[in-house]
Amino acid sequence: MMQPSTSTIISLSLIVTVLLPLLNGDDALLPQRLKILPQICANKDYDVVTAIHKMVQTGRTSKARLVANECVLLLNNAYASSKFSSLFKCCSGSSDIIIEAYKTSKELQHEHEAYLQSIIDNLNKEGSNTTIDSARDSKCVHSETLLAEIEMDPFASNIKDDLYTHGSTIIEQWNACCSYWRSDSSKSKCILDDFCCEIVEGTDHHLILPALREPYIKLKNSNSTEFIEIEQDGLLQLYDVGGVLWPAGYLLGLCLSNPVKCGVEEIFDAINNASRPYLLELGTGVGFAAIALSKTVRDQSNSPLVVATDVSKSALDLTLTNAYKNGVKEMMVAIEVDYRDVNSLRELKSTINLSDGNTSKEQQGFDIIIGSSLQSLFDGTQHKNAHLWLTLDTLLSRNNLSATVILSHVRSGSERIQVPDESIPFELVRRISGDEFNMKTRDGNNSDFELVVLRRHRQSY
């Protein structure tokens, strides 16, 4: 699960205040956006709180998220109270009650050891219920029109607020044009008819990340015709860092979507050098990077297995749902692992059974390891005894000479991943700046993020 730095946590309140849309509004389009709630509330003796609880307990968490979000959308819309009185009542009349019902139900679900299996069983039976709102699909390119308008009048109020930058303008437009929570009143602020509602490499739409309240987002890299659709907990578990996609995770997923362009072709060497490759993500969150990697390697003849791990049960729920949504369920598994606990890591290796029949238990390990902004794991990496080096030494294959680690994190300051000069079993292969993917900051500066590619020292084999 991604854990933000102190500076990131401090900035979250600013992001919420400046970058998120207002929910209230007279939204005449609301009926078109209530896809499942009328069915749930058709039984007048049934209420959404009860429905959410039953859905979660039976593994239908994707459907529970959809119902809860529709209720919150309804309850925060001025148009709804008079036009949809029966639905309003069915939703208990309070967003706080709905959100608390979802949280409580999830907590109860997680007390059961087989909670993931119940989610898998339901996904096999019904699939994921959420579909991306496609009302504003458009050709997603770098918006020169918007850039020109911002340049002409970047601060319409003439107030030079540090928070009101090119980035905040992009996000205001995304919220007005694209957000799940947009209303008629916010749509009036959408200045471009063809504003792109997907997060696409080459645009500035990575600046909306983390989209803290959005229940789902749609992403792709510039060289692919295939989108990746991601469900998030969003508003239902606001500030749960494992329940949304973060910029470092997005950068990692972009790279893995096109390893050749990214400059990490060695992942194909790592796969080809294994009889059956095992690929691991530490702290998967919503699963974007693991899904991107799965799509990239799914045509390999030696049947790679992608193992998505997290200490957060909610994150694993989202990852499984998103794997099913994006067609990689057969080559991904999700496992609860605490990457800070050596015993948990060893249990992971035992669970996956990494043996190929020809290597000792000590040599067995994962052929590729990925991870993004794992704050507690990335602390103090300049020291040879840092937890990162112990974790990688425990998990990375000693038998595969091409075994590779790709990490995504901040690129400057004390939090940057540093490979110590002292003797450790790993060496830095290269650093790849987020600038290679046009991931500039909100104020137009060079990217805050980079990819770090590592491998074992040859003498350590």
Summary keywords:
12% strand; 461 residues; seven-stranded mixed beta sheet; three-stranded mixed beta sheet; alpha/beta; single chain; globular
Give the secondary structure arrangement, pairings included.
Blueprint: H1 6-19, H2 30-33, H3 37-40, H4 48-57, H5 61-75, H6 80-83, H7 85-90, H8 95-109, H9 115-126, H10 144-152, H11 166-177, H12 184-187, E1 199-200, E2 216-220, E3 228-231, H13 247-257, H14 259-262, H15 266-272, E4 278-282, H16 288-297, E5 305-310, H17 313-325, E6 332-336, H18 342-352, E7 368-372, H19 387-395, E8 404-410, E9 426-433, E10 449-456
Helix pairs in contact: 4-5, 4-8, 5-8, 9-17, 13-16, 18-19
Q: How would a textbook summarize the main sheet?
A: 7 strands, mixed
Q: pLDDT below 50 for ≥5 consecutive residues: which ranges?
A: 6-26, 134-138, 142-163
The first-to-last residue Cα distance is: 30 Å
What is the averaged pLDDT score? Answer: 84
Number of helices: 19
Anisotropy-based shape: globular
| Cα-based radius of gyration, to the nearest Å | 23 Å
In N-to-C order, the SSE pattern is HHHHHHHHHHHHEEEHHHEHEHEHEHEEE
